[in-house]
Structures are given as structure tokens and as C-alpha cells.
Specification:
The chain is built from 8 helices and no strands. It has about 325 residues and is an all-alpha fold. The longest helix has about 100 residues. This is HMG box domain-containing protein.
Length: about 325
């Protein structure tokens, strides 16, 4: 084979450029064919690699999703168990201040121990992915048959039982302390009530007495006002009766003259004339009246005086009976 290649090589060297030209042209064409096919192959290879990477990522995602689903299902199961044990299906009460820390399950203890190792093995994994991987390890540990795995599982279960016992002991003590605290608060409230009861009753009694005194004063004031009003009414009635039954005093001759001439004087002076002007004019005219013109008025005055004296005598006689 080597000798044949040497002979062919010697013959190729002996060929002229014209003789080599067809072969060189064919070689160039084949080279172009190769480069084209190589480019297509490279693209196909890259696509295959991309597809392989995508499938690997997809498979990892499926595994992570499955692990996460298992983890969430486990958490839901643990929560349901805790809720059922706490209040038989009712909503768990919020943790009260100062209450003991709730016990951890075997899974949570396992997760706390395994988390750092998983994080170290998968430094680029997210928190969710780490949780899924821990859940997957827990699932595998539950079905593992090796002595080491069984011992580890028994250790977590024992630790969970111990933590549960710790919680129950602390919870019992906490409940007793809360009951004692409530009893002390109730006793203090009762003492405070008893201490305030006496002054409060005294203040109430004083307020009641003050209110009664105020009502009594108001009633007395109202009664006095009613009596004063009645007294005034009686006084007015007496005065009215006295006035109605009183003997009218006799009028003078001048008064009879004024009564007879007042309207005429008012007409002469005009409607706008004041009363004082009318009275002054009557007085002026009375002074100028002759005795003859005065005589009717004097007679009327004397008759009125006689009437007054007679009525007065009758009243005195009636009073003496």
C-alpha cells in the first residue's frame, strides 16, 4: 500500500499543470461539497445538543415538580394531623404569647439535618428546589432497607417523640401558669371592686340625697310660686269687687260743666288739639260763666252730693247689721 502510494505520488508530480487541472477542479468542487455538508452537520449536531439539553432540563423540572408535590402533600398531611389532634377538625388557634414551641415531626427534624447537605451538593438550586430534593430524600429514606437508613429513621422518630413529650410537659406547665395568672387577676379585680364599692355607695347615697333635696326645694319653690300667684289673683279679685261695690264719689259743678261742653270745645279747637288744650279752654270758659249759667251745674253737683251721702249712710247701716 505504501509503495503504491509512492508510485502514484511520483506520477502526480510528473504531470503537467494542464493534466492536473481537471483533477484540481474536481477536488475544489468536492471540497465545497464537504464544507456545505459539514456546515449542515454542525447545525444538526447543535440542534441535537440543544434538544438534549432541553430534555435534560425538562426531566430535571419534572423530577423537581414531583419532589415538590410530594413535599407539599406531606406538609398538608402533617398539618391535617396536627389540626385533627389539636381540636378535632376545628381551625387551630393562634399561638398565644409565651406558649411553648410546637413539637417538630420526624420529617421536619430530618429536613433540618439534610438541608445543609443538599445545599452543598446543589449550590445553584433555589429554595424551592432544595425543599423538593429534601422531600425526595425523605421519601427514599422511608422505604430504605439498610441498617444505617433504618437507624437514622428511628433516630428522627425518637427525636420527634421526645420533642412531642417536651411540648406536652411545657404546655401543661404553661396552662397551669396561665390559670394561676387568670385567678390572680380575677382576685385583684375582686379586691379592687371591694375597695371601690364603699366609697362608690357613699357617693351614690350622697348624690341621691342631693337629688332628693333638689327635688324638694324645686317642689317648695313651685308651691310658693303657685300660692303667690293665687294670692295676687285673690287680691285683684278683692280690689275689683271693692271697686265694683264702692260708692262713686260726687262730682263738682265744674265737672258737670266740663262734661256738658267738652265735645263742643273739642270741635272748635279741632281734632288735632291735645287734651291739655281742651282742659285749659274749659277751665278758662268756666271762669267766665255767670252765676245764672252755672246754676244748672251747681244743682246737678248738689244732687250728686246728696246721692253720695245717702249711699254712704246706707252702706254704713248695712255694715253695722
Amino acid at each position: 500500500m505504501t509503495e503504491l502510494a509512492a508510485v502514484i505520488g511520483a506520477q502526480w508530480k510528473a504531470l503537467s499543470d494542464g493534466a492536473k487541472a481537471p483533477h484540481e477542479k474536481a477536488a475544489a468542487k468536492d471540497k465545497a461539497r464537504y464544507e456545505k455538508e459539514m456546515e449542515a452537520y454542525a447545525k444538526t449536531k447543535k440542534a441535537a445538543a440543544d434538544e438534549e439539553a432541553a430534555m435534560a432540563k425538562y426531566n430535571e423540572g419534572v423530577k423537581a415538580a414531583a419532589a415538590m408535590a410530594f413535599y407539599e402533600a406531606h406538609l398538608a398531611e402533617e398539618a391535617a394531623k396536627a389540626a385533627a389532634a389539636a381540636d378535632k377538625g376545628k381551625k387551630k388557634a393562634k399561638k398565644q404569647e409565651g406558649a411553648p414551641k410546637r413539637p417538630q415531626s420526624a420529617y421536619l427534624l430530618f429536613a433540618a439535618e439534610a438541608r445543609e447537605g443538599v445545599k452543598a451538593a446543589h449550590p445553584d438550586a433555589s429554595v424551592t428546589e432544595i425543599m423538593g430534593l429534601v422531600a425526595a430524600e425523605w421519601k427514599a429514606a422511608q422505604v430504605a432497607t439498610s441498617k444505617k437508613a433504618k437507624a437514622a429513621m428511628a433516630r428522627h422518630v425518637a427525636a420527634a417523640d421526645a420533642d412531642k413529650a417536651r411540648y406536652e410537659t411545657e404546655m401543661e406547665a404553661w396552662k397551669e401558669a396561665k390559670a394561676a395568672e387568670a385567678a390572680a387577676a380575677k382576685a385583684a379585680e375582686a379586691d379592687a371592686y371591694a375597695a371601690a364599692k364603699g366609697p362608690a355607695l357613699a357617693a351614690y347615697a350622697k348624690a341621691a340625697a342631693d337629688e332628693a333635696a333638689a327635688k324638694e326645694w324645686k317642689a317648695a319653690t313651685k308651691k310658693a310660686a303657685v300660692e303667690a300667684k293665687a294670692e295676687k289673683a285673690a287680691d285683684r279679685a278683692a280690689k275689683a269687687e271693692k271697686k265694683a261695690t264702692a260708692i262713686k264719689r260726687p262730682q263738682s259743678a265744674y265737672m258737670f260743666y266740663c262734661a256738658a261742653h267738652r265735645e263742643a270745645v273739642k270741635a272748635e279747637l279741632g281734632a288735632a288739639a291735645p287734651v291739655t288744650a281742651v282742659v285749659s279752654e274749659l277751665a278758662r270758659r268756666w271762669k267766665g260763666v255767670s252765676d245764672a249759667d252755672r246754676s244748672p251745674h251747681v244743682a246737678a253737683a248738689e244732687a250728686d252730693k246728696a246721692r253720695y251721702e245717702a249711699a254712704k249712710a246706707d252702706a254704713a247701716k248695712a255694715a253695722s247689721c
